[in-house]
Amino acid sequence: MKIGELAAQTGVSVRSLRYYERQGLIAPLRQANGYREYSALAVETVETIKLYLNLGLSTEEISGFLHCVLKNKEAFCAEVMPLYRSKLEEIERQIVQLSQIKLNLQQRMASIQQERLEAEAADNALSE
């Protein structure tokens, strides 16, 4: 199948498919005219890539174990669990950081609201 057909079947843009190719995640055959020709297995490969991207993994991380998971179950790919643990730790750190940012914003908003109330009270006291 051509790249446009693969894009239509997987819901992935042609641009992304070309990026996956540059990253070594998919490997089409090249016809004499230079067109890319994908096998039927390319659909499964792209769907697998989408799954891992949705888990927050980068294409570089995916390339480290994609070949294994396409041939075996995840449970039999030694690279997967350490990567999942690392990604989970990264997400936990981000949650802590975002929680602190949220608290900082809430405190700043409360401070601004308090300043407004105090300014309005002062204005009211002067006009009485």
From TrEMBL:
- Gene3D superfamilies assigned to the protein according to its UniProt record, in alphabetical order: 1.10.1660.10
Which residue range or ranges hold the HTH merR-type domain? 1-68
Query: Where in this chain does the entry annotate a coiled-coil region?
Result: 88-122
Record keywords: Transcription regulation included?
yes
Q: Which UniProt keywords apply?
A: Coiled coil, DNA-binding, Transcription, Transcription regulation
Organism's domain of life? Bacteria
Q: Name one Pfam family in it.
A: MerR_1
Q: What is this protein called?
A: MerR family transcriptional regulator
